[in-house]
Amino acid sequence: MAPEDQRSGLPALGLQDALFLDFDGTLAEIAVTPHKVAIDPRIPAVLIQLAQRLDGAVAVISGRPLAQLDRLLQPYAGAMAGIHGLERRDAAGKTMASAPLPELLHARQVMAEFSATRPGIVLEDKGLALALHYRANPEHGPACREVADTVARGRLTMVPGKMVIEVHPDGMDKGRAIRTFMEEPPFRGRRPVYLGDDRPDEAGFDFVNKADGISILVGSAFQSIARNRLDGVSEVIAWLNGFAFGPSAAVIIR
Predict the structure, then answer these.
(1) Is 22 labeled as catalytic in the residue annotation?
(2) Are residues 118 and 216 in the same domain?
(3) DSSP 42-56
(4) pLDDT band at residue 10 under the 50/70/90 scheme
(5) The domain containing residue 205 runs over which residues?
(6) pLDDT at residue 9 above 80?
(7) 177 and 81 both lie in a single domain
(8) Can you list the positions of beta strands (E) in the chain?
(9) What does 113-137 look like in DSSP terms, one character per residue?
(10) How far apart are CA 196 and CA 74, in angstroms?
(11) Which of 11, 13, 2, 10 is nearest to 246 (CA)?
């Protein structure tokens, strides 16, 4: 049995682990709209220290584009997967991205017309994907799902999340993004650990579970296949900080 972190009751992180972290709802509290997100200013330092301890085997796996993640997490500039893996930067700093599908042109038009007529609905255009956010007007959730389902045809797929419906190219998810990292140094041969809070993270949990890793759901919004749980973002930060900085972490972040 793996050693347990006495502060959290979770399996303890080890120096031979590979750590993968969702962003919204895991490293940062979810905001009403994506551009209003705010992070604890100490998080970049925690990520940098984690990467040092794990020899670079740390990656952020998010639905956000890489450009947004870089802006929010600077000066941290480690491995990342953006838009569920459609964009990616490996541990050596090489970036790669899928080509935008022409089907997104029609989807963009339909979703833009839909959001323009419904107050509180925000269309986020990620270039390679589109997302309808309805946190400011939850009653429109079913209608958002319906319009997304209408345009998610052919090579496009619909991905529901917390008060958001995304449409992006089929064939990529967070589990596949983690698997790709695990095939590369410095992740290769390590035990994968993944923290996430939403239904799109289930693909990551599935990969990690099958690899005998540590899967951690943040919060309790739904019944998850994750085998462990932390209550919220503050608990995530404290747990990560405890590993990054050692026994003194309890007085650094609570």
Answers:
(1) yes
(2) no
(3) THHHHHHHHHHHTTT
(4) confident
(5) 17-98+172-251
(6) no
(7) yes
(8) 17-21, 58-61, 79-82, 87-89, 95-97, 122-125, 130-133, 156-161, 164-169, 191-196, 214-218, 228-230
(9) HHHHTSTT-EEEE-SS-EEEE-TT-
(10) 21
(11) 13
User: Does residue 163 carry a pLDDT above 80?
Assistant: yes
> Do 131 and 182 reside in the same domain of the chain?
no
pLDDT per residue over 174-226, tens digit each? 999 999 999 999 999 999 999 999 999 999 999 999 999 999 999 987 899 99
Which residue is listed with tokens 């952020």? 60
Give the CATH number of the domain where residue 64 resides: 3.40.50.1000
Joined tokens for residue 7? 């502060």
Are 211 and 17 a contacting pair, CB within 8 Å?
Answer: no
Buried b (16+ CB within 10 A) or exposed e, 108-140: bebbeebbeebeebbbbebebbbbbbbbebeeb
Nearest Cα residue to 89 out of 73, 100, 98, 78? 78
Dist. CA 72–CA 88, nearest whole Å: 16
* Active-site entry in 22, 173, 197, 198: 22
pLDDT in tens, 86-103: 999 999 999 999 999 999
Q: How far apart are CA 250 and CA 207, in angstroms?
A: 31
Both tokens of 160, joined, read 């529901």
